[in-house]
Amino acid sequence: MQVALCRLRTHQWCFILFNIMLFHALLFGADFVEEYLLQSLPVAYTDVKVLEIREQARKLDMESRKDNISKSYLISGVDACSGQDVFLLSVIFSNPANRMRRDLIRQTWANVTHVKEYTILTMFALGKPNSETTQLEILKESESHGDIIEGSFLESSQNQTLKTIMVIQWIVTFCPSARFVLKTNEDMFVNILSLVDYLLSLRIHPEDIYMGRVIHQALPIRDPQSYTFFIPKQYEEKFYPDYCSGTAYVISQDVARKVYVVSNQVPMSLPSDVFVGICAHHAGIAPIHSSRFSGHRHIIYNRCCYKFIFTSAGTQDEELIVEWREISDGKKCSVLQTYYGLVSCKVWTYLDKLKYLKNEALSFSD
Ligand SMILES: *[C@@H]1O[C@H](CO)[C@@H](O)[C@H](O)[C@H]1NC(C)=O
Ligand SMILES: *[C@@H]1O[C@H](CO)[C@@H](O)[C@H](O)[C@H]1NC(C)=O
Ligand SMILES: *[C@@H]1O[C@H](CO)[C@@H](O)[C@H](O)[C@H]1NC(C)=O
Questions:
Q1: CA gap 106, 326 in Å, rounded
Q2: Mean pLDDT, to the nearest integer, of 77-98?
Q3: Taking 70 as the threshold, does the pLDDT of residue 69 lie above it?
């Protein structure tokens, strides 16, 4: 092998080098473009409306409305956050019926309550279940864990925007000390450790943080068959403004307040992540893209890759347990191992997608 390498001529070296570069360009090119070239431009702060909203958010005082607001929830969880200086609040959108999944999350990534001296708090956001028995079980679950917020609306895919508004209201009213909020779904794998590390590395008092996998120029769905259908009249623009995929995104407390202030001016029939994106846009906040968020993709597992990324979608119960155990065992990954892990994650996830596309094509031709 060594002898063979020594005998290579310059143009052969060039060829190998070119291939390595091409491989990397194909693998990481899209990420690079998204991360550095496609960042959305912030809205000009000179816009009077934007300035008004930001001023309103700054002055927002929820203290007098606390009692009233707490009555609008079935389970208000008002004490969960009070008196604590929370660095990161994770809010997990969960279906009332999925008790098992919530317990798994409690045992895995949501078991982290401190990183260094910073407090991490996890809450589950639920709608009302259809059955009385489930409701009783949820009351018991809430008593033993104290980490549930339950709205008075029916849990359904159409009511996720309502849930989002409920959560935003909860944050600004009952957890104003939380510096950052992670919104995510129960099917996600979240590496809370790498996420907190990243957030700690930001400036001392960062504002306008609205970060996730940014979706550019999405077309509104105007198909009445789709569950995200809404009346086109309510949104006339050709594209949605850039927004963060609802699978997982992080906002700072000031963004929660700004979104809350404008939330009654935006149609509720929009998909929940688009809704937040439009609210943010009105308040002059541009989403920040990070390719460490997976969006809807399931990232094929590799330990050092998972220690670096923030999220992966569609994680099965058994995977969640094993993967969390492996990444939280304290074993470090060197830069080279992380690099190799990322390449491996990329390649396998890409091949997996190809397999999926091929199956799709086959099922279409049937
Ligand atoms: C609380 O709600 C009641 C009924 O909805 C309303 O009449 C009252 O003004 C509210 N109080 C505050 C302080 O907002
Ligand atoms: C959760 O964390 C505590 C310490 O913070 C630890 O003792 C416990 O074993 C953890 N639970 C699980 C299921 O990992
Ligand atoms: C959303 O919640 C409201 C209030 O509970 C309920 O009336 C409505 O039926 C729910 N929507 C869906 C589609 O379930």
A1: 16
A2: 94
A3: yes
